[in-house]
Specification:
The protein has about 80 residues and is mainly beta. Helix content is about 5%, strand content about 20%. It has one helix and four strands, in the order ββββα. It has a two-stranded antiparallel ribbon. A two-stranded antiparallel ribbon has the order 3-4.
């Protein structure tokens, strides 16, 4: 995953720096979202994240004897979903 740098002209404080731009790892300016004025008078840089790809039942795990990936009657949960020690 590449890094995105949100650049300000000063550090965080009670008089924080102003937004300058968004850059990639090489310091090149990039567009990552759209500016929108909110009803409260503030402005927001809206960055949409891609939705995760759907997972097929074959990718989840084995089904229980009832044919379900998660089953409360037999308390079946795929092994890959369980907390590993």
């Amino acid at each position: 995953m590449s890094k995105i740098q949100i650049v300000f002209d000063g550090p965080p404080s009670n008089k924080s720096g102003r937004f300058v731009e968004v850059e990639n790892e090489e310091g090149e300016s990039i567009a990552v979202g759209t500016w929108a004025q909110r009803p409260d008078g503030y402005w927001a840089l809206v960055i949409e994240q891609p939705s995760p790809a759907p997972v097929s039942i074959d990718e989840i795990a084995h089904l229980c004897n009832h044919g379900y990936a998660i089953c409360s009657p037999c308390d079946h949960v795929p092994y890959s979903w369980k907390v590993q020690p």
